[in-house]
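Backbone-to-sequence.
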């Protein structure tokens, strides 16, 4: 049973998350011939304040001034 965990900065729409789950599932089924019903996708959403790159958080610039 393939299990995929994807971490995202929160803020995407429900439709976008559904599309992501569907396309990742399709890729796994195609790549390793896993039965579609056995594929598990876990989306983890984190606040932009909890993710940093290059010494800065990923929150919107106006939020970083405080």
């Amino acid at each position: 049973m393939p299990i995929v965990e994807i971490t995202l900065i929160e803020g995407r729409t429900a439709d976008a998350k559904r599309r992501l789950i569907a396309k990742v599932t399709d890729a796994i089924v195609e790549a390793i011939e896993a039965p579609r019903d056995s594929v598990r996708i876990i989306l983890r959403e984190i606040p932009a304040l909890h993710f940093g790159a290059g010494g800065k958080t990923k929150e919107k610039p106006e939020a970083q001034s405080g």
